[in-house]
Amino acid sequence: MCTVVIDVENAATVRLLAVRDEDPQREWDALGSWWPEQYPGVIGIRDRRAGGAWLAVDPQRRRLAVLLNRADVQELSGDRAVSRGSLALESVAGRSPEGPLPMHGFNLLEVGPEGARVLSWDGAELRTTPVAAGTHMIAHDDLDDAVTPRIRTWLPRFRALAPAAEAAD
């Protein structure tokens, strides 16, 4: 289960505190400018299998996107599913997905000058959840979802720490 921990101070200041990608069998290339023709100025983690990204940033536009898998509520065969690898890249280019989508479920964390939000697609509905000030976790369920054991265990601990902006280290 992929996991992201973020600290939102305000619309202009969001810190990515931790990212955990948990598919050791899926090879990826380290942060780099892998798509110079289609996404100039964008750097990201490139998925070697599909060529897309699960983490991308456009420093000039001050945009970040992180893609996490989510369970589907409807059956979608593998031969009909479109890769989700373009979602983070399109997001930092300013183009968010619109439903319905011919792809498996996902959570897409989008951070930009206007703030942070999570777009969640479960195979039937695309929902948007604004991310308020504070420390948050996202995994394969909803933002800060206590049903997820990892979030239930760790989110209170992260929140008990001082916000990243105030921490000396």
Q: Could you give the order of strands across the largest sheet?
A: 3-4-5-6-7-8-9
What gap, in angstroms, lies between the N and C termini? 28 Å
The percent range for strand residues is 35-45%
Largest sheet geometry: 7 strands, antiparallel
Question: Which percent bin holds the helix content?
Answer: 10-25%
Write structural notes for this entry.
- This protein has 169 residues and is mostly beta strands.
- Helices cover 11% and strands 38% of the residues.
- The protein has helices spanning 87-92, 149-160; strands at 3-10, 13-20, 28-32, 43-47, 53-58, 63-69, 106-112, 115-121, 126-131, 134-138.
- Strand 4 (43-47) and strand 5 form a beta hairpin.
- The longest helix has 12 residues, at 149-160.
- The radius of gyration is 16 Å and the shape is globular.
- The model has no long low-confidence stretch (mean pLDDT 90).
List keywords for this structure.
seven-stranded antiparallel sheet, 11% helix, mainly beta, three-stranded antiparallel sheet, 169 residues, single chain
